[in-house]
Write a structure and sequence with these properties.
The chain is mainly α. Helix content is 49%, strand content 0%. The longest helix has 11 residues. The protein is globular.
Length: 43
């Protein structure tokens, strides 16, 4: 199994790359979404 990390600034295309990988059949874990859900719960 390979692990690929995607990083970059705002507007650099991270979401586009994630969508492409998803359509290619890869599992994508979005750390930003997870972090937002934790932050919202604990506010």
């Amino acid at each position: 199994m390979k692990l690929i990390a995607i990083s970059g600034g705002i507007g650099s295309g991270k979401s586009v790359v994630s969508r492409v990988l998803t359509t290619m059949g890869y599992d994508v874990y979005d750390c930003d979404s997870h972090a937002r859900s934790i932050t919202i719960i604990h506010i």
